[in-house]
Specification:
Number of strands of chain A: 14
Oligomer: heterodimer
CATH topology of the largest domain in chain A: Rossmann fold
Number of domains of chain B: 1
Cofactor (chain A): thiamine diphosphate
CATH architecture of the largest domain in chain A: 3-Layer(aba) Sandwich
Strand order of the largest sheet of chain B: 1-2-3-7-6
Radius of gyration of chain A: 20 Å
Number of helices of chain B: 13
Order of helices and strands of chain A: EHEHEHEHHEHEHEEEEHEEHEHEHH
Distance between the termini of chain B: 59 Å
Helix content of chain B: 40-55%
Order of helices and strands of chain B: HHHHEHHHEHEEEHEHEHHH
Domain Transketolase-like pyrimidine-binding (chain A): 12-187
Pfam family, one (chain A): Transketolase_C
Largest interface: A-B, 40 and 46 residues
CATH superfamily of the largest domain in chain A: Thiamin diphosphate (ThDP)-binding fold, Pyr/PP domains
Largest sheet of chain B: 5 strands, parallel
Strand order of the largest sheet of chain A: 3-2-4-5-7-6-12
Organism (chain A): Nitratireductor pacificus pht-3B
Number of domains of chain A: 2
Helix content of chain A: 25-40%
Structural class of chain A: alpha/beta
Strand content of chain A: 15-25%
CATH superfamily of chain B: Thiamin diphosphate (ThDP)-binding fold, Pyr/PP domains
CATH class of the largest domain in chain A: Alpha Beta
Protein name (chain A): TPP-dependent acetoin dehydrogenase subunit beta
CATH topology of chain B: Rossmann fold
Number of strands of chain B: 7
């Protein structure tokens, strides 16, 4: 599936994998540079850029003032005129400050100008809850951007995919928004050395199964896999699909899986209503897989609330392994 | 009108002619007049086509502001870039666009600059360095700074001009863009076309400082106020700003004081300004009349030459409208084309 033959692999954290991708991209292409708040000597709020400024210098690892709208727009302008900027938001919540440039400019410029330009900008968004940072530093806003034609929106779940998808994003001629779950930054996994890409727009079947398809994104992929492992002990065989890209969505992989398992559950951290699960569910309801469904579709998403500070409340806001196990068991055994 | 010319001349130390007569040859100056006519007649043609139902949507006319667009772009090459505004037809023409393809865009045709996807508010000829008009007030400001960042990184020696209106100076994007352009000393020139009103709200009611250029001080860059209806004054300020930018000394904010004769857009009932005020600008301070008189005074052109330009522009406008009418409509089957870049 990957564009290049993979060579030796070793364990890297998700954050290290992203950093390695940026370093490789900057080595391969002098047009690539990084912009963001405190990404230089500080190393980024989550230490994703780390020491890259020492290797590539402050011209290519550019600290910006705290100006998300202006910074995002400058990245757009640089992209349109021939550079390959990678713009880091300190928290995905701050996308709200830059929505004008993301939604009205980056996403639409090529279309509005009748194809006369491309906008090869990458924007990175540390997202998600679980860090006790409360309502303004914990959101999962990927569905907001997934609603905008002209953008591509990806959510890598593993170090391997984080590196490969980011390298693909940097090479992509169109604006690519990457949502990186903060709790994944320290997660380790096998990452090939050197250059490789993971294709944007392609889901990955992480676990094959016969009884139920779980379509999950980002950190929920791991929770779904854990739930599937638990339920395998009860003889329930779950297929877990890591969506990886939410726009453009890999419909075919999901449809084929549901045709096989006849049951669908969507697990995602963003607010449940009008979210990714709504899209995946509707997509299946509109497809040939609908006739194969043996049970209603189930969505497990974020609660209809801002993310609270208290750790127990925070945990209760987003799907957890226990909840996925219960919902999946009920769905497969017909208890619901 | 010759008084204007003499006034400009007397401002120039050690020279007896205004800036543009020392800087550019006569062909270039006659072409500047031609471009001003082209802008005005283009917009009159667009307005008439709109009235006749040939163009839908809306448009924002810059009639009365031609000296600013032409004066700023006079010394630019195709490699120098601009970002433009919703009132951007003049910038597009001043930068070198073909009015036929502009009309075709307004008519929604495939031969238009944006293949019928953009219309008036997104008009752009990228090949002459126009990165696009913009429907969002202040939207082009960060983009221009980004283009200037590219110019600096790639060492192109090009300058980027960021046109915006007085309304945009109260958007956050203005302040963020000027600040970053200044701290990174980027080759960008911010050109505020202050026509007195953001839609219906006067600058006095909307902006805490008397001049937009006063805000340059907050970003440690020169702030220059010019009579936006005098081509030479505009061009001279722009020349200094672009030299500064190309030297690597950073941005300048130029405020062109000007006036739009027409309403904000096609929905405007003009209830926020008096007939007398509009009349006064049209009869006393028209930029084309002033420039014509000056060109005659300095012996660049005579009455017959002016008449020939007008007639030639009128023919070009008529031919452009004809081209637009006859051009094909886009195929609905291609609705989603250009959302993403086609990849092999």
């Amino acid at each position: 599936m990957d564009a290049q033959v993979e060579t030796a692999t070793r364990e890297l954290s998700y954050a290290q994998a992203i950093q390695e991708a940026m370093a490789i991209a900057m080595e391969r292409d002098e047009r690539v540079f990084l912009m963001g708040e405190d990404i230089g000597v500080y190393g980024g709020a989550f230490q994703v850029t780390g020491d890259l400024v020492e290797r590539f210098g402050p011209e290519r690892v550019m600290d910006t003032p705290i100006s998300e709208l202006g910074g995002a727009g400058i990245a757009v302008g640089a992209a349109v005129t021939g550079m390959r900027p990678v713009f880091e938001f300190q928290f995905s919540d701050f996308a709200t400050l830059a929505m004008e440039q993301i939604v009205n400019q980056a996403a639409k410029m090529r279309y509005m100008l009748g194809g006369a330009v491309s906008v090869p900008v990458v924007m990175r968004f540390p997202a998600g809850s679980g860090t006790g940072a409360a309502a303004q530093h914990s959101q999962s806003l990927e569905a907001w951007l997934g609603h905008v034609p002209g953008l591509k929106v990806i959510q890598p779940a593993t170090p391997h995919d984080a590196k490969g998808l980011l390298l693909a994003a940097i090479e992509d001629p169109d604006p690519v928004m990457i949502f990186e779950h903060k709790l994944l930054y320290k997660m380790k996994g096998a990452v090939p050395e050197g250059y490789y890409t993971v294709p944007i727009g392609k889901a990955d079947v992480r676990r094959e199964g016969r009884d139920l398809t779980i379509v999950a994104t980002s950190i929920m992929v791991h929770k779904a896999l854990e739930a599937a492992e638990t339920l395998s002990g009860e003889g329930i065989d779950i297929e877990v699909i890591d969506l990886r890209t939410i726009r453009p969505m890999d419909r075919q992989t999901v449809i084929e899986s549901v045709r096989k398992t006849s049951r669908l559950m969507c697990v995602y951290e963003g607010v449940k209503t009008l979210g990714i699960g709504a899209e995946v569910s509707a997509m299946i309801a509109e497809s040939e897989a609908f006739d194969y469904l043996d049970a209603p579709i189930v969505r497990l998403g974020g609660a209809e609330t801002p993310i609270p500070y208290n750790p127990e409340l925070e945990k209760a806001t987003v799907p957890q392994v226990d909840g996925i196990v219960r919902a999946a068991r009920d769905l497969v055994t017909g208890a619901r | 009108m010759s008084a204007t010319a003499r006034k400009s001349a007397s401002k120039t130390e050690g020279a007896n002619q205004p800036f543009i007569y020392r800087q550019f040859d006569q062909d270039k100056l006659r072409d500047a007049l031609r471009k001003m006519y082209l802008i005005r007649q283009f917009e009159e043609g667009a307005e008439e086509s709109y009235m006749r139902g040939l163009i839908h949507g809306t448009m924002h006319l810059s009639i009365g502001q031609e000296a600013s667009a032409v004066g700023i772009c006079l010394g630019l090459s195709d490699e120098d870039q601009i970002t433009s505004t919703h009132r951007g037809h003049g910038h597009c023409i001043a930068k070198g666009a073909d009015v036929s393809r502009m009309f075709a865009e307004f008519f929604g045709k495939t031969t238009g600059y944006c293949r019928g996807r953009g219309g008036s508010m997104h008009i752009a000829d990228v090949s002459t360095g126009n990165l696009g008009a913009n429907g969002i007030v202040g939207g082009g400001l960060p983009i221009a700074v980004g283009a200037a960042l590219t110019a600096k990184k790639m060492k192109t020696g090009n300058v980027v001009v960021c046109f915006f209106g007085d309304g945009a100076n109260n958007e956050g994007a203005f302040h963020e863009a000027l600040n970053m352009a200044a701290i990174w000393k980027l080759p960008v020139v911010f050109v505020c076309e202050n026509n007195g009103y953001g839609m219906s709200t006067s600058v006095a009611r909307a902006t805490a400082v008397p001049n937009i250029a006063d805000r340059a001080a907050a970003y440690a860059m020169p702030g220059v106020i010019v009579n936006g209806n005098v081509v030479s004054d505009v061009a001279e300020a722009m020349h200094e700003a672009s030299e500064r930018a190309r030297r690597g000394d950073g941005p300048t904010l130029i405020e062109c004081k000007t006036y739009r004769y027409r309403g904000h857009s096609k929905s405007d009932r003009n209830r926020y300004r008096s007939k007398e005020e509009i009349e006064e600008w049209m009869t006393e301070r028209d930029p084309i009349e002033a420039f014509e008189a000056e060109l005659v005074e300095f012996g660049v052109i005579d009455a017959a030459g002016i008449e020939a330009i007008r007639a030639d522009v009128a023919r070009e406008i008529a031919a452009g409208i004809e081209f637009a009418k006859e051009s094909p409509m886009p195929d609905v089957a291609n609705l989603e084309k250009y959302v993403y870049t086609e990849q092999a």
